[in-house]
Design brief:
Layout (H helix, E strand, L loop, with lengths): L6 H14 L11 H40 L4 H10 L6 H10 L1 H14 L1
Helix pairs in contact: 1-2, 2-4, 3-5, 4-5
């Protein structure tokens, strides 16, 4: 069986990996093996932190809704329960945006939720 040399393919793959970690400190941006380790770790961090970002944003939205609801005389949990009873289907992202940028509308939503509760 004849020998197959994969030099060009290997070089292309190595260059792609090294280019993806360009700017990293020391050998992590120069040597293939260290670059590959750095790339794999960075991809793992990116995957993990995409999920962590969703958790963090949800916590932020809940905090903002809670603060705005308390300014209108309601706790967060009672407010969310009242929204469900009033069939107001706004998610936490939208509620937090309204609470920050349009407090009058948020107050109206709270009053409607109070009426339904």
């Amino acid at each position: 069986m004849t020998r197959v040399k994969g030099g060009t393919v290997t070089r292309r793959r190595h260059k792609k990996v090294i280019k993806s970690v360009k700017g990293q400190y020391g050998t992590r941006g120069r040597l293939f093996r260290r670059s590959n380790e750095a790339m794999m770790k960075s991809l793992w961090y990116a995957y993990r932190d995409r999920r962590a970002r969703r958790r963090d944003l949800r916590r932020l939205w809940i905090t903002r809704i809670n603060a705005a609801a308390r300014q209108n005389g309601m706790s967060y949990s009672r407010f969310i329960h009242a929204l469900k009873q009033a069939n107001i289907e706004l998610d936490r992202k939208v509620l937090a945006h309204i609470a920050v940028y349009d407090p009058e509308t948020f107050s109206a939503i709270v009053e409607e939720a109070k009426a339904a509760a």
